[in-house]
Design a protein that fits this description.
The protein has about 290 residues and is α/β, with parallel strands linked by helices. It has two domains: about 150 residues, no CATH class; about 90 residues, Rossmann fold (3-Layer(aba) Sandwich). The protein is about 30% helix and about 20% strand. The protein has ten helices and twelve strands. The strands form two sheets. The protein has a seven-stranded mixed beta sheet with strand order 3-4-2-5-1-6-7, with helices on both faces. The termini are far apart.
Length: about 290
């Protein structure tokens, strides 16, 4: 049931049917009210200067935009960086240092999947999860970092930072609940808007390919993978941040008579210890001049 609801909402926001377009139109008054409230919230905030370079990376809409590879590429260019994120989908609460400069300090159930990607991909960076970004910023400063990247933090208007936003194209440009947008580009915000394929480019490496692979993934808007996919036996989509069970993956392998499961890195960090044969879609980003000059 949850899976069906998630995919219905994704279609409603990004590729609506005629009936969903009608529903969106009927909800427009609520969207105007929501957007006004979010504007009042923005105007009521005074940005706090933490005395350290802070960059927020995300998007304005609900759902994935591929920000994790972009944050990874940006952080790799900084010699003394920390990545801070909420850790959505984790089983823990509060602040955890997922990785110091030397080692990973917890497992994926504590960190959440996205934080564990950073922990694996950024050998010299600190990774912290915390619902309270300000507490995490202070912790990162105590640990001596010179640059902090906030994963998905445009709405944290009380933190002084540069916001980098990935432009997400949608047939529905309304705010919630009529459309997918959580906020607008508010006047007075320091924002750098980037276009995928223009200001940065994605590159996919296929690791441990087999002749019969079943795609299994739990990312938002999984159709985004289609342009990078090799031939697969089947495509198995799960809700974003889904916690996989070994048995459900074994059932897919058996049903498809597949040699391996094809996964993204976000899936890989959750299933790598199951003892199943995996193939990996490893995504990296090349930064354009517009970003490098910042």
């Amino acid at each position: 049931m949850k899976k069906a609801v998630v995919f219905w909402v994704e279609a409603y926001f990004y590729n609506p049917t005629l009936l969903q377009k009608l529903l969106s139109f009927l909800l427009l008054p609520l969207s105007y009210l929501y957007c006004f409230v979010m504007w009042l919230r923005y105007k009521s905030k005074t940005p706090e200067d933490f005395g350290v370079k802070i960059v927020g990376v995300g998007n304005l809409s609900v759902g994935g935009s591929g920000k994790t590879p972009l944050v990874t590429a940006l952080a790799l260019n900084e010699p003394n960086a920390a990545v801070i994120l909420r850790g959505y989908g984790r089983e823990s609460q509060g602040l955890y240092v997922v990785k110091n400069r030397e080692e990973i300090l917890c497992d994926v159930s504590v960190s959440g999947d996205e934080a564990m990607i950073y922990a694996h991909k950024l050998p010299n960076a600190i990774v912290i999860v915390s619902e309270d970004r300000k507490v995490a910023i202070r912790k990162a400063k105590e640990m001596g970092v010179s640059t902090i990247f906030l994963d998905d933090a445009y709405s944290k208007h009380d933190i002084k930072k540069l916001d980098i936003l990935i432009e997400v194209k949608s047939k529905n440009s309304a705010c919630l609940p009529a459309g997918p947008f959580r906020e607008r580009l508010w006047r007075g915000k320091e924002v750098l808007v980037l276009e995928d394929g223009v200001d940065f480019k994605r590159h996919v490496t296929l690791v441990d390919e087999t002749s019969k692979m079943s795609l299994v993934t739990a990312i938002a808007r999984p159709q985004r993978l289609n342009e990078f996919l090799p031939d697969v036996v089947s495509k198995n989509y799960f809700p974003d941040h889904h916690s996989f069970r070994k048995e459900e993956l074994e059932a897919i392998l058996k049903r498809d008579n597949a040699e391996s499961l094809l996964v993204t890195y976000k899936d890989y960090v959750k299933v790598k210890d199951f003892g199943l044969r995996l193939s990996l879609l490893d995504l990296d980003v090349t930064l354009g001049e517009k970003i490098i000059k910042q």
